[in-house]
Amino acid sequence: MTVTTQTSKDKVWVDESGIQIPSKRITPVERLKEKNASLLLKKALELQSKLIAFKEEIAEKSAEIQCAVVEGVKTTKDSKGNYTWYNFNRSIKVEVSVNERIDFDDLEIMACQEKLNQYISENVQSKDDFISELIKDAFATQKGKLDAKKVMSLLRYKERVKAPLFLEAMKHLEASIRRPDSKTYHRIALRNEEGKYENIDTNLSSL
After folding, report:
1. Which of 4-40 are b and which e, b meaning 16 or more Cβ less than 10 Å from the residue's Cβ?
2. Taking burial as the number of CB atoms within 10 A of a residue's CB, which of 67, 68, 118, 159 is the most buried?
3. Which of these ranges, 17-26, 124-133, 154-163, has the smallest mean pLDDT?
């Protein structure tokens, strides 16, 4: 979107509805707002451009470090994911965090919930009854949406709960998992005199 600053040299000013207003009817306060808003927008766009360039640079430098470490240990392990690296005296910390959004396939998650409800109804008196509260909590929705972390936490009990219905439900849960997108966050922190790391706020997460 192109923004044109309106000045006293313009014979008419155009408002948000496209209506032309004679310049002589523009108040001093409106002129000051126009001038300062345009100035702040220009500086904000310049800062945004610099932050975007910096985000690309920190990603590039971090990837360079990660590749060097992987080559050094000659690992075949997938190197994607969260990691942290430091300078030599550990006064500077750089963190890379990968946040994957998790969604669930509607049909598979419904099948999972049906199996779990059946499991609960058939095992109310069993030694595994503790899981019923976990299941109810995991499938409690907020604003019509499931809490992905709570639902995924049920997978931790695959080794503990051996009931066939529960294991079938976990298969449906695993089949339901979708990761439509991911976002990478970078943070740089400096160690203070108390030995604690203080993040340098660059607000890169929104870019």
Report:
1. eebeeeeeebeeeeeeeeeeeebeeeeeeebeeeeee
2. 118
3. 124-133
